[in-house]
Structure formats: C-alpha cells, structure tokens
Amino acid sequence: MRMLGALFVILFSVGFKGYAVAELVEIEGGSYLPSYGLKTGSQVDVESFYIDRTPVTNREFLEFVRDNQEWQRTNVKGIFAEKSYLQHWTSDLEILQGQEDFPVINVSWFAAKAYCKSKGLRLPKLNEWEMVAMASHDKKDAREDPEFTKFILSSYEKPKTYLKKVRLEEPNMYGVYDIHGMVWEWVEDFNSVIISGESRKEGDDGLFCAAGSVGASDLSNYAFFMRYAFRASLKANYTIKNLGFRCAK
Amino acid sequence: MQTKIAFLLVLLLSGCNYSPDKNTKSHPRNDLIKTEGEMVAELTAPPNVPAPVGNRPAKKLKVELEIVERESELSDGVKYIFWTFGGSVPGSFIRGRVGDEVEFTLENHPDNKLPHNIDLHAVTGQGGGAEASFVAPGHKKTFTFKLINPGLYVYHCATAPVGMHIANGMYGLILVEPEGGLPPVDREYYVMQGDFYTKGNYGDPGLQPFDMQKAIAEHADYVVFNGKVGALTGDKALTAKVGETVRLFVGNGGPNIVSSFHVIGEVFDKVYVEGGDLINENIQTTLIPAGGAAIVDFRVEVPSTLILVDHSIFRAFNKGALGMLKVSGDRNDKVFSGEVLSGIYRPEGNVIQEISPSEPKPVRAVALSKAEKIKLGQQIYDRSCFACHQPDGQGLPNAFPPLAKADYLNEDVDRAIAAVIRGLSGEITVNGKKYHSVMPAQVLTDEETASVLTYIYNSWGNNGTEVTPEMVSKIRNSK
Lengths: 249, 479
Known about the structure:
The structure holds 2 protein chains of 2 kinds.
Chain A: H1 2-17, E1 24-27, E2 30-32, E3 44-46, E4 49-52, H2 58-67, H3 109-118, H4 126-133, H5 146-157, E5 184-185, H6 209-215, H7 222-232, E6 243-244
Parallel strand pairs in A: 5-6
Antiparallel strand pairs in A: 1-4, 2-3
Chain B: H1 2-13, H2 20-24, E1 38-40, E2 60-75, E3 78-85, E4 94-97, E5 101-108, E6 119-120, E7 139-146, E8 151-156, H3 162-167, E9 171-177, E10 187-196, E11 206-207, H4 212-217, E12 222-225, E13 238-241, E14 245-254, E15 259-264, E16 268-272, E17 279-283, E18 285-288, E19 292-299, E20 304-310, H5 314-318, E21 322-328, H6 370-389, H7 407-411, H8 413-422, E22 424-430, E23 433-439, H9 446-457, H10 469-477
Parallel strand pairs in B: 1-2, 2-5, 3-11, 4-9, 10-14, 13-21
Antiparallel strand pairs in B: 2-3, 5-7, 6-8, 8-9, 10-12, 14-19, 15-18, 15-20, 16-17, 16-19, 20-21, 22-23
Helix pairs in contact in B: 6-9, 8-10, 9-10
C-alpha cells in the first residue's frame, strides 16, 4: 500500500510537471538519538515519510507565485514576509537569467509552507529533516564520520553556496541532493527545540557551551550546533539569503 | 559593627598587611551616574584606538557594529575565512566611560551564513548581552546597558559553537575609562592576540579551513597579534619617538591560549593588571588570559625596534606571535650604549644549532619558474629570515649582517647555500664590517632553499643569481 502511494506521488510529480525536479523520495521510518539528545538519552521516533530530492528552485517557486498572486513580491503582507522577500528576483515574476535552477532563497516560513501546501505537501519536521541529514552517500548515520562532519562544517563557512544549480553534487544514500552544502532549510517546527540566543545558559535546554557539553549526546558533531543556532535565530517572517526549503509528505 | 571591629583586630594582631582604606571602601555606585546628552561612538580598526574620553560627562553612547564573514590573509599566501566584528580581527575598538549608557546595535550582514551575537565582558546582565543581541543574517538587534565598572574588557561572539566563532576571529576590546579618563600618554595602540587552527600546517598556502579537531586538542597552528602573521611588522610596525609615553591596550581573544605578553627591549613602567584598577610597576612580562586583557604603559628612552612577543616563545618565532614597535630619535648612550667591545669566546668550540633534526621534505616533480621561486622565497623570507636580516635585508648593525648589496653573499653562491642549510658561525666580514654571530641551520627543502636564495639574490640590489634545487642538493651532499 505504501509502495503504491510512493509510486503515485512520484508519477504525479514527474508526470504532471514534465520535469523531475519536484520528485519525492520515501524515507523509511525509525528511531535515532538526535544530536540534541539530551541527558535523557531519549530516542526520537520518526514515521515513514516522503521528502523532496532537492531544495525547491527559483523556477518552481516562480510557478507558484504566478498562480498565487498574494505571494508575489509586491503583494505579500509584511507579517508573512520581510522586505527582502524574493529580493534576488528582478521583478515579481522574473528570475535573473541562469538562476532558474538555483535553490529559491529569501523566502519566509509562511511562504515556504504555503508553497508546500499548494502541492498537497508540507514542510518536513525537524526530526525528519535531521534524520535525512545524518546520511552520507554510503551511511545512514554518518555522524561519527569525521570526514562527513568536516565537509558539513566547511560548507557552513563557504560563502554564497546558494549560487549554484541543485542536483550537481552526489546525493546521499537516500537519493536526496544538496541537503548539505547549499542552503539552510526551513522545517515545519523550526522553533521547537528551544534554544536561547544565549548559548551558555544553564537550564533544561542547556544545549551549548559548558552546559552543552553535558547536554549534547554527540560532542564531536559541531555541525548540528550550528544548524540549531541558526534555526533559533529565526522568526517565521524572516527572509534570508542563505535560507531555502524543500517539501515533505 | 562589633564584628567588624573584632575582624579588624584579628587582622591587626595577626600582622597581616591589611589596608583598611582600600578594602573597606565600598564600591562606588556607578549605576547612579547621570548622563548628559548623547554621542555616536567612534570605532577603530586595530592597531588604532578612538580618542580618549578626557573629562566629558557620561552620555548616551550609540554603538553600531556590523558582523562580516570574509576571506582574508592569515599569513602571506595563506587565506582564511574570518568572522569579524566590524571587518577586522580583532574587532572594532569601543571606548566609553564609566556611567555611559550604551545603545548597542549589532548588525548581521545579509551575505553572512550564520547567526551571531555579542557578549561584552563589560556588561552586567544576562550573558553580557548575548541573548539580547542574537541575530540572524540580514537582521539587526539593539540592546542597551550601562557601563558601571571601569577597565579594559574583551567582547566576543557567544553563539554555538562558541569556540568556533571565537577561533574564527570574533573578539575585540571595549575600554571603559574611569571618571576623568586614564592619565594621558603620547601614543595608544590596540593589540590583540588570538590562536588559529587550520587544516594545513603553519605556512601551508591556499585557503585553509578551520580544523575543529585541532581546536579541541588546543594544537594551534598560528598564534598571532591582530589577526595575521606580520600584522605589526615591517612597514606595519607601530611607531613612537624617543621620550614619548606609549600605552598598549592588549587583549587575548584565545580561544585557548594564554599569553605571556612581553616587549623585547622594554620594561613596562605600569601594568593595569588584567585591565582593572590594580597597577603594578616595573614589569617584564604580564600574563593575559584568554578572554582577558591588560593595559601596559611605558616610556621609550632610546631608538630601537622593540619586539612584541608572546614569551611562550616558540609561538613568537614559529607561530607568528611577533610584532614591532619602531622607536626613532636620538641615541642615549647612558641608557643603552650598544656594543662596546666584541671578541671570540669559545669554551666548547663551534657549535651550530639545528632548528630540527628531521629530514627535509622531498622535491616536487615540476620545477618552479624564477618568478615562482621569488614569490615562494619571499614568503619563506618573511617567516624565517626577516627577524634577523630585517625586512629589506639591511641587517642589524653589529648583530646580523646585511643581505642587501652584500659582497659576502654575491661573491659565492655555494657559500650562501651552505650557510642556509648548515648554518654559519664565527667571524665573517661583510661589506668591510666584521660580524660574530651564529646563524642556525634552517630546515628547508632544496626547493625552498633555492627559492629563498633566489628571492634574496633578486632583491635589494643583489646580483640576480637564480639558485636551483640541484645546486642546493649538490652542497647538501658534499659534506
């Protein structure tokens, strides 16, 4: 039954769009110990889900705003997106030539959510996204692999990684592309792991700094610290140059 | 009251060197100082500092600091992506006075990839402002605080992972002057030490990514002043004139390494210990903890090049913690005469030291062009040679022979090669002047030796010889 569903989704996105950018891939559910994982050592359970193979591109997002005028740059409401919303486009419905297949950036959480909804999808949950992000090209959980961590860390330092086409790099073992090394990505519950901007405060959520070294279950994985810090700095109407998204189901 | 007297009595009886004046004086209530008017804070990049506060009243002080992630040089030919407060490492110097009410705006440039914040050690309040200032790329945050403790304080980014943000250069100094300001001096400079951890080793060229493992192990590849090897040497050296008083605001950003801050050829007349009120006098070396600072004052009496170092000394000569303060003016032979007499003293014969006994690395397959050798040679020279032979090869009179237009060098290339790879000691005559020094053998590959010599031969009016790795190899094997 699940297989049929997957088939349907893939056929739907490939068949109806005519190009295979919005393809979804099925991720088998399971349990894992998240990196924020805490003094309790409690695992998180993730049910099987589908996730986009690539981040949503400018081309795809343009199609969405063409059909949904309220999400065009000049129409969007300030409470849903900041002034810098889609500011890398040349106008409401024009993308800089050559950037069609770059990941869309400068989109708020509200806009990302509306996009996914329009496709009958949703944003991935944090635990789903992180589970996919643990995988390297050959391991389901590569968090212990120092080379993998190094690769992610160095990509967080590299400027302007959003200026390239999706799907150029090797996918991870799920067949998911560009989950690292391209853009930060919105998740549905981006503010669910409560981290204060003060990263060293003791408390239940003591994730970082001195408190963090006690709380975090995976000391060597600094990359996740950076993702969580980034998410914690966001508000749902923020639009940022390095921040895009992909959908899930 | 009774207990206080009893306490005092005990102290007196026990013969303790107790100063009731200092220790019983209650701390001033600087939080009650009233402000008059407002001003925009002047911010400066190192080694400069903003103008002193003098005797201005406490004000509302507006500070705007922009965070920029940018690529820059960590050493000649070595690139690094720095995260900066205000575009420089260390970040902009902030100067206020006690009682100032600071309106602080932290701006995170839209091109940045990461959220950041600021923890100012001068701030009394949650996280030193870290929580209030936590800001996503393309956004800004404003918070306010009152400066209630005078002193020199470190500020830094405190966003997870904190160590990495600091290791990438996110630190600087904020000075809170006391009422009426610090005593005036002729020159003030901003110097801040920091340690860096790169994938490659010291001097490996190209863009070097941050190495988290080395940072955790505290194995620094670079320990530098003001964010770069050579940030304070050569034509970027600090300057002063004989008779002037100099004040250095010295900070240590860390993230790991504690500094044994010392100025070769000078004694600190005054040290504001740890940047606070306590003044110690006549100090040779002052310890500056990571995340701490000190103010050092001294008068320069004679012309010389003072060398700023971390006196944990391998850091100075092998990791970059070296700066210069050039003092110009008239000699004062009473204070320092220079060399009066020289002779040979050899109780144990000639001993030439080697920097390391390890074998030099093999040569690469493709030979370098002359231009490439000169480029590589200059980098080697700026690391290994200039401290003695000086940036323009002029040497130091009576100590280190010149290389510029040097007959000893130009006459005999084999002899020059041997000096580099085997070292040299005993009396030599260069351009008519006698020198008795010891030059240690340098551990360089044949190619590096050829490059540095080619650079030297093609600089400063020398004869333009091009040295090849084969020439070096021949000398090396002809023991």
